[in-house]
Amino acid sequence: MAYRRTAAVQARLDAARGAILRAAIGLLTEHGYAGCSVAAVAGRAGVATGTVYRHFPTKAHLVTEVFREAAGREVAAVGAAIRQPGPVAGRITALIETFAGRAFKSPRLAYALLAEPVDPAVDAERLVFRRAYRDLVAATVADGVATGVLPPQNPDITAAALVGAIAEALVGPLAAGAAEVDTIPSLITFAHRATGATRATHA
Amino acid sequence: MAYRRTAAVQARLDAARGAILRAAIGLLTEHGYAGCSVAAVAGRAGVATGTVYRHFPTKAHLVTEVFREAAGREVAAVGAAIRQPGPVAGRITALIETFAGRAFKSPRLAYALLAEPVDPAVDAERLVFRRAYRDLVAATVADGVATGVLPPQNPDITAAALVGAIAEALVGPLAAGAAEVDTIPSLITFAHRATGATRATHA
DNA sequence: TGAAGTTATGAATCGTAGTTCACTTCTTGG
DNA sequence: CCAAGAAGTGAACTACGATTCATAACTTCA
């Protein structure tokens, strides 16, 4: 044997893999899935198309990982916001502000994660993504129910409905490009009413 | 001139067009967009693939019309339910029962209309579809606000959020195949709370 | 009936990615 | 430096389904 993979080579391989992933995330953020052809990803990463296949068995694997990475960041950001200590109503406010604020900052990405038509393989990942949001919200709602600041309810369904409400209220504006200033405050009011948070609970 | 299109011929043409449309709707209902290749549609309609193109300039046109037709039926059904005379809360209950009931009866179709990845051309139609629902709901909410049974709110945003809530709460179960029995009643409660309908307003 | 014109057909064509692979370039250890 | 093997390359290959088009079958009406 006259060749063995050294740490330096491994590092370079890892770097290349990372570059491919980053390139794909960048394209997804700027142009959605349409911009994510293997050729385009390879070009942006500075490698040949064939090289992509030395790191990902199929395009579906690549795109799935891209989705997971991008979605993970969103969930992490929203999770951090909703896990702040404080009253339940305030945490729900933070959830919506974070979710919507990030969506408006990267509308193309938000659309890609929430709604853009894709490979069915990725669609499954989207369900996971939404469930992650749902679980986050459900935990907070359950917390509120347990401490009595929210009325009894099925936290999972409330959470699913809230996530859907937020997503739907945003998809229109995101597709249109411009958002009504009113959207976020109205959504917050809606969410408080929907969970049963009383006025007294705010602030 | 030795040929002119007669009424009989026109009728046959119309029938063929209708058969193609119906075949496509059937395939969409049973197998989603994946089942809607031009060849499959033609086969089911009993015509050759080329014939499809004598009635629809492109597949996008066909699929768009299919979507519009199928979605129109849903909106019409829900519209009929929500326009029943009676208290606002009851109409919202009817909305959800109709929407969800139909979705559970044709889960594949519901998924196709609500969420399945498709051609961007159709995606635009999906926004129209959702807006139709939104407008339907918004009218009812506005009605409730005007008559004082609902608190002041932006009906458009409430409506968008409600539509999203219902869709999201259903997509999971639809994808999974089985629905929790709890889903519909919980959604109704959620919707009442979310719109601000008081307990007294029910029944 | 037959000439003019229309409609139906489906095999062949086209376009578009994703994927492969023969070849080149690089790395390693003796 | 060199043989063994790995990683990188990108042009060529493929799969797939939409679309076309030369041809056949059919309709009309003088």
- Write down the secondary-structure element order of chain A: HHHHHHHHH
Q: How much of the residues of chain A is beta strand, in percent?
A: under 5%
Shape of chain A: elongated
- Counted by DSSP, the helix tally of chain A is 9
Which oligomerization state do the chains in this entry correspond to?
Answer: homodimer
The structural class of chain A is: mainly alpha
CATH class of the largest domain in chain A: Mainly Alpha
Q: Average pLDDT of chain A, to the nearest integer?
A: 89
The portion of residues assigned to helices of chain A is over 70%
Total number of distinct structural domains of chain A: 2
Number of strands of chain A: 0
Main beta-sheet annotation of chain A = none
- Radius of gyration of chain A, taken over Cα atoms and rounded to an integer in Å: 20 Å
CATH topology of the largest domain in chain A: Tetracycline Repressor, domain 2
Explain what the structure shows:
The structure is a homodimer of 203-residue chains. Chain A is mainly α and 203 residues long. Chain A folds into two domains: 1-57, Arc Repressor Mutant, subunit A, CATH 1.10.10; 59-195, Tetracycline Repressor, domain 2. Chain A is built from nine helices and no strands. Chain A has helices at 7-31, 38-45, 49-52, 59-82, 88-105, 107-114, 120-147, 155-176, 183-195. In chain A, helix 1 crosses helix 4 (59-82). The first copy, chain A, is elongated, with a radius of gyration of 20 Å. The model of chain A has no long low-confidence stretch (mean pLDDT 89). The interface between A and B is large, with 38 and 37 residues. Chain A binds a DNA duplex (30 and 30 nucleotides) through helix 1, helix 2 and helix 3.
